[in-house]
Specification:
The chain has 269 residues and is an alpha/beta fold. Helices cover 30% and strands 22% of the residues. Helix 5 packs parallel to helix 6. The mean pLDDT is 91.
Length: 269
């Protein structure tokens, strides 16, 4: 029997209506409560880290996010009583995370910190590990990855930013380096959650999600589930539904309305 890795009372499983167990996630509009914000293009919805933390961690455990953005994971971690460390390559993002975390209500007196760094680099991992040990952790209990969807959105001009990768192969290699770099910090039999979508380039649908999935699988992780999440109208397509419908009909493609939430378990060596 597998060891329980959450705080759910399984004998009373029916008292958790908010916990999703199906593979189709119709979440609707993002939760903008607390200090969450949708100002950052590509920012993922708070419901995703909420579901991941409730299912795969306990209060007082540690969550890592190597692509922290504006801190969605860290804010949810504080609200749910989890420690968290996030990394982002952009100083602006880290500054925003620190402010938002500081302003978030912290009923469980946990800690959450953001680090400026390139998640492909060992030096960045060393900074994260040092912080973990300061807090009394040798291993993390959950890792969330929400990388750029290659070059769909250029987040910065920084050379280490994966959204600046010149081609898909370079992007996938960079993404894999992040997985390899941070995997040693995650405890065995604990979960890595990948939030990723596909892209459409030069008349071809690029299965970026499944390409990233394979990069995780071949590095010591077992695929446990693939969930498909609905995408509501985003900033890039806001108010342009008719235009995108026309383009789809004219050029024989389908408009993206989904992305993937993939769950992997770290395999014991």
């Amino acid at each position: 029997m597998s060891k329980q890795i959450n705080d759910l009372e399984l004998a009373s499983w029916d008292i958790y209506p908010k916990i999703i167990t199906d593979s189709l996630w119709l979440l609707g509009r993002r939760d903008n409560g607390s200090l969450h914000t949708a100002e950052y293009w590509g920012n993922f919805v708070p419901q995703i880290p909420y579901q991941a933390m409730r299912r795969f961690t306990k209060q007082g455990e540690l969550v890592l996010d190597p692509f922290a953005g504006l801190g969605t994971t860290l804010i949810e971690a504080v609200r749910l009583g989890r420690f968290a460390i996030g990394v982002d390559i952009q100083p602006y993002c880290v500054e925003q995370i620190r402010w938002r975390v500081e302003m978030t209500e912290n009923p469980y007196a946990v800690r959450a910190e953001a680090v400026i760094g390139d998640s492909t680099q060992v030096s960045t991992r060393d900074i994260v590990y040092q912080k973990m040990r300061e807090w009394g952790f040798e291993k993390a209990h959950l890792m969330l990855l929400h990388p750029p969807y290659h070059d769909i959105i250029r987040f910065s001009s920084l050379p280490g930013d994966l959204s600046n990768s010149p081609d898909e192969h370079t992007f996938l290699d960079g993404f894999e380096r992040v997985v390899l770099n941070f995997a040693p910090l995650l405890a065995e039999n604990r979960f890595l959650v990948l939030v990723i979508g596909d892209k459409y380039t030069k008349g071809e649908w690029i299965p970026l999600g499944f390409q990233c999935m394979e990069r995780v699988r071949r590095n010591g992780f077992r695929l446990k589930s693939i969930c498909v999440k609905d995408i509501q109208e985003n900033r890039g397509k806001r108010g342009q539904y008719s235009l995108w419908r026309y383009r789809a009909l004219r050029h024989n493609f389908y408009v993206f309305k989904h992305e993937y939430v993939m769950f992997f378990e770290k395999v014991c060596k």
